[in-house]
Design goal:
The complex is a heterodimer of chains A (133) and B (380). Chain A is mainly β and 133 residues long. Chain A is built from no helices and 10 strands. Chain A folds into 2 domains: 42 residues; 78 residues. Chain A is globular, with a radius of gyration of 16 Å.
Chain lengths: 133, 380
């Protein structure tokens, strides 16, 4: 029906949703632990009984740093923030953070947002997630 | 009665950058030296284990092929930064089990400059900026500083110590002392880690010949234990570099697991160790290793630094070789490089780096996987 290329696409399918914004994970039916990214087995107990869930978009900052040199294979701009956010589900996620910010403190409330990472060769904007104060 | 395994020979190709020299060339150099010292040639050893992460398919076969020493089983082993130590552990096990009398163990690497690229990370994870290994190190360092009261000044002191040791190591890449001011003034890579606080991936090789010990012999260096462990599920900040985890303060890290097993197997405790070579991928990593290996309690690092206990001439020197901060880190070779250093220390031939009267040494690696190794050597 519509041959126009999508104007945006995620850096990888199945990691996050945009509306409402949130990471996509799994909850184990046996041990109740949450995991990210989605997996067919629970990385905490090995159970195959896992249920797909959307994870909370708000969390708590548990660690932060700034990446100043582009690591191999990276598609975006430097510098960028990098850290750990704890979600209410009891899960700590390694994540990109909004532009390095002096306000970053241990325990700071942060919220997930979907942002442009870079433009692909065909003009498509590649999106990823990050957390921001 | 368990079988004693002795170190019959050691060999090392210097760690650094060697334009025009292949990883096979470096492996040949280290293997030839170790076999010569052990007095072992074709027919004298029954298996070879080669640790390497980046040298590719049948890398160990190429080395022994160049020396016309093939025909025996040759096994290439990848266990991240613990690859060489994993090879050692398998070789020792084969001798203790009675499968072989003499086994060659070697490790080698030729790595590109800069941040290590690893097939461990999916392409999208690299593209999204989530494969930044030094950033993981930085988060771990930040946590250590927050929880222990240590400061970036303390990180600089570790670098100053190891680089001072490295001055006397002809096999190290960096042989120039640095001051704390220079360390704290070097480029910020990932706060709180600065360039001089991070080791450089580089090139090199090391080899060890293990042999079933017969009778007793004064001065002989034997393997008291060689342990490899991986991480338990859950930690978000370990060398396993997961994308998520849980609050991990109650989960013993793989280095602690390996240390416990190694002390038990050797029948000793941390207080019996005279000299240590530990993983100092970054300066905070070494301070964390001290507590993981039971060398000090959490939060005691500053008093150890103040007392000079971990420096040459101190109570129990750590990284007299200069550590990875001086030598650089050729992944597959680094663990065996530590063993070569400890054997020289226990033989009393380490020259200006000598830890006086050293009889028991401990080597520790930890890295991708996660894999952690602890090797304990003793001199009879």
């Amino acid at each position: 029906m519509n041959d126009l290329p999508a104007s945006t696409r995620p850096v990888h399918e199945g990691l996050f949703q945009s509306d409402p914004p949130g990471l996509l994970g799994t909850r184990c039916d046996d041990c109740s632990q949450h995991a990210f990214p989605r997996a067919t087995t629970c990385p905490y107990c090995g159970s195959e009984r896992v249920t797909d869930v959307a994870l909370s978009a708000s969390g708590t900052l548990r660690g932060w740093t700034t990446v100043t040199t582009a690591p191999p294979g990276y598609g975006g701009a430097v510098p960028y923030g990098f850290g750990i956010v704890e979600l209410p589900e009891g899960l700590r996620v390694i994540t990109r953070l909004a532009t390095p910010d002096q306000r970053f403190t241990y325990g700071l409330p942060v919220r997930l947002q979907i942002v442009a990472l870079h433009d692909a060769e065909d003009g498509t904007t590649i999106e990823t997630w990050e957390f921001a104060p | 009665m368990s079988v004693d395994v002795e170190i019959a020979g050691i060999g090392i190709h210097p760690f650094g950058r060697f334009e025009g020299r292949t990883v096979t060339d470096m492996g040949v150099s280290a293997v030839r030296a170790a076999l010569a010292e052990a007095g072992v040639g074709r027919g004298g050893f029954q298996a070879a284990f080669c640790g390497t992460a980046y040298a590719g398919v049948a890398a160990g076969h190429k080395v022994l092929g160049a020396l016309a020493l093939t025909g025996i089983p040759i096994v290439d082993i990848e266990a991240g930064c613990a690859s060489g130590a994993a090879a050692l552990q398998l070789a020792a096990g084969a001798i203790r089990a009675g499968q072989h009398d003499c086994v060659l163990v070697f490790g080698m690497e030729k790595m590109p400059k800069g941040i290590i690229r690893s097939s461990f990370f999916e392409p999208w994870r690299e593209e999204a900026g989530l494969a930044a290994t030094p950033a993981y190190f930085a988060l771990r360092a930040q946590r250590l500083l927050r929880e222990s009261g240590l400061t970036p000044d303390d990180l600089a002191r570790v670098v100053v110590k190891n680089r001072r040791h490295g001055v006397h190591n002809p096999n190290a890449m960096f042989r120039k002392e640095v001051t704390a001011e220079e360390v704290l003034g070097s480029r910020l890579v990932c706060d709180p880690l600065r360039l001089f606080m991070l080791c450089s991936p580089n090139e090199g090789a090391a080899a060890v010949v293990l042999r079933r010990a017969a009778g007793s012999s004064a001065g002989r260096v034997t393997l008291a234990s060689a342990v490899l462990r991986s991480h338990l599920p859950g930690s978000v900040l370990g060398e396993a570099t997961p994308l998520s985890g849980i609050d991990d303060s109650a989960i013993p890290p793989p280095s602690t697991l390996a240390a416990r097993d190694a002390y038990e197997e050797a029948g000793i405790g941390p207080d019996d160790v005279d000299v240590v070579e530990c993983q100092d991928t970054d300066a905070a990593r070494e301070l964390l290793a001290w507590e993981e290996l039971g060398l000090c309690a959490r939060g005691e690092q500053r008093s150890v630094l103040d007392a000079g206990d971990a420096a040459l001439g101190g109570r129990r020197p750590v990284n007299p070789s200069g550590g990875l901060l001086s030598k650089g880190e050729p992944l597959g070779a680094s663990g065996l490089g530590q063993v070569v250093e400890l054997v020289e220390q226990l033989r009393g031939i380490a020259g200006p780096r000598q830890v006086e009267g050293a009889r028991t040494g401990l080597a520790h690696t930890v890295g991708r996987g996660a894999n952690a190794s602890v090797t304990i050597l003793t001199r009879s």
